[in-house]
Amino acid sequence: MIIGVTGTIGSGKSTVCSILREHGYEVIDADKIHHQLMEIGNVIYTDVVKHFGEEILNDDKTINRAYLRSVILNDKNKKTELENISFSHILSKMKELSLNKETIFWEVPLLFEAGWDKFVDVSIVVVANEQSIIERVMKRSNLSAEEVQKFINAQMPVNEKIKNANYILENDTNMIELTRKVLNLVKQIID
């Protein structure tokens, strides 16, 4: 069984997936795979540099993620172009890593936007109030509230994610309560 975990930036999907890992569940992180495939010599790296040009590179030839992020946040067409280059490679790697697994979780920020919900058996959307999201992301990423809002606006609205999800997991509480909610939900899904 493949269980997709999604949510907006700062909703707590990574925290939920950390809880899952701590309790023995295997989680594949789409963002980590994307980062690996964007390293020098990997397929996405080559395609992204070819498409966006060498101006996206640091002096050591690695991709300047901050610069690329600013490009795609300010131009929806560029965001779509990056997604078109990346998504099929990431999905292929995730499917490969999921082979022969009885239960595996996929952490995918853009599960519905990418259309990957058709590749999971169950989907969970992690939600939090917008003020909590903004505060979390500002704190962890050293971004302004305006920059965080750009990320939020670039993603599918949370109410759309909720409509598409099988389960909703609210993350407006402490870690003890969130852990309890996560484990209860997993038990409900798997049993």
Structure in words:
The chain is an alpha/beta fold. It folds into 2 domains: 1-26 and 103-186, Rossmann fold, CATH 3.40.50.300; 32-100, no CATH class. It has 9 helices and 5 strands; from the N terminus they run E-H-E-H-H-H-H-E-E-H-H-H-E-H. Strands 2-3-1-4-5 form a 5-stranded parallel beta sheet, sandwiched between helices. Helix 2 (30-37) packs across helix 5 and helix 3 runs antiparallel to helix 5. The longest helix is centred in the middle third of the chain and has 23 residues, at 76-98. It is globular. The model has no long low-confidence stretch (mean pLDDT 93).
How do the helices and strands line up, and which of them pair or pack?
Elements lengths: L1 E6 L5 H10 L4 E3 H8 L5 H10 L12 H9 L2 H23 L5 E4 L14 E6 L2 H12 L3 H10 L3 H7 L2 E4 L4 H16 L1
Parallel strand pairs: 1-3, 1-4, 2-3, 4-5
Helix pairs in contact: 2-5, 3-5
